[in-house]
Design a protein that fits this description.
about 110 residues, alpha+beta, four-stranded antiparallel β-sheet, 3 helices
Length: about 110
Amino acid sequence: PLVQHGAHFGPLELDPQLVLGVENDEVYLTKSFTLQRGETILLYPTGVVDDACASGEEFGVLRLIRAVSQLGAAASPKARIQHITENVKEFCQTRDLLDDLTMVALRAKK
């Protein structure tokens, strides 16, 4: 996940875990943190950062952070997801996406 701090986003340090719902008996670790009013958390699958352009270069976490931060602090979660999707597709150009771009962005109430 990426978490907003002011106008910029950074990673929420979590160990990777299995996707929810795949294994009935999977035990998931939890972590608590506080979003300030108006801040956003972005949940994304590996497909967002793993999608690559024709040369094989991956979109990557740094490009994702840049894309989600470009809209400024007040951007809506929907606008952030649309902007990221456009950036990934533009980066990959005519190459098919390798995975889904399912994302969730949640903003703390102002």
